[in-house]
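Why predict the complex rather than its parts? Because the way molecules touch one another can change local conformation, and only a joint prediction can capture that. The input here totals 458 residues.
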Amino acid sequence: MKTQLTLRVNGAPRDVPLSFVGRRLLDTLRLELGLMGVKEGCGEGDCGACTVLIDGEPMCSCLLLTGVVEKCEITTIEGLPAAFLTRFSAICAEYGAVQCGYCTPGIAVMAAWLHAGGTELGDQPISKLFAGNLCRCTGYQQIIEALTALR
Amino acid sequence: MMPTVSPVLRPSYLPPVELHRPNDLGELFACVAAGACPLAGGTDLVVWASQRGEPRQLAWTGGIDEWHIVDISGQQVRIGAAVPLSRIARSGELRSLISAVIEGASVVGSVQLRNQATLVGNVCTASPGGDTLPGLYVHDAMVDVVNAAGSRRSIKISEFICAPGKTNLAPGELVAGVTVRGLGPLEGSAFCRFTQRNALDLALASVAARVRFESDEQTVAQASIALGAVGPTVLDAGQAAALLVGRTLEPTQLRECANLAAECCQPITDHRASADYRRQLVRALTEEIVLAAAKQVTAGCASVEAS
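Output of the joint prediction:
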């Protein structure tokens, strides 16, 4: 009988105990796989701090049960290309787009999606595409300026 | 002084949900018969399960292949129960067919939530303020219901949703999809909602309208209007829409129609807005949205974009 669940996380197969099938993906990534870049903010899908890419599309890992994404490619901030992260950090520093940094991993994952050509119909502005990522201290102006420069 | 420990369990430490992953309808019905709650996108259910501890048993519907299908045949569109809102909102083909539904689907939550949440989930949640619902009402949505014996029935959406959070789904039945009537020639539809912020917010009031013109492109041949968040369910403002039929969309006609829509709605006063404010919103939004639907015809469906 199967005792392990094999996930594909950041390009590599990762085994987790079968008991994690019904746990939130957020908990599996943080508690079992030690990927602490995935943050828990609200736990209700409002704040976007737990954003990960599922087959290249951003989703809230607090609203996904682990078993649901068994066959998907899961990407957390830890799995984003180093060159992208270097550029993202440099631009954030330049525009002052990070203060406490708690919302930043979710924003970085969204930025990677945007960078890879992700958008919605009608070429939405960044402020609209990032409406699901809340920030409580830096200020949206700086974040939007940085993301515009990155795009 | 020692900090007191909160009696509320941290969501992360709740015991795991029992998750079933059926591969076909037969297995799904078996799970539901054993007490599992069907799980589509999970944007509501997983929050309830991880914060209130209920439900404890879920059956994921994503494994049912036929529920992932979006089928367009002529003017009819059928959307399967596992289709996420983003797939609908990003479809250029659907945009010209079911504009009012698309406009609703593209304002639900955020990019992340639209990638998870499903249209059928929005229908089954049956919130009076569900953003896709007024659009589905004016597009004459039929809810396709199946039971374990394999028999199917189609229910008009206005009869399917009966009260806030309540539907007429019988025990042992599941919603397989919704079928909507797309726009024909000389026809347009639109949806708009009013919220305090632009994202992740619930509508204080929302309006969808559908207008079909005579061949002169000026006289209204048929019209329907649906109002969201101003009654226990989405309301069909049929009387208000009827005022437009046989007339042209002059400002006085529009005003009369919007006034009647505002009169026939049943808003409540709560912490988010007063009933009177909601009525004023319905009046303003109705005028705006009837015109937006009409403009789709006169502008030759200019809103068609590449998917």
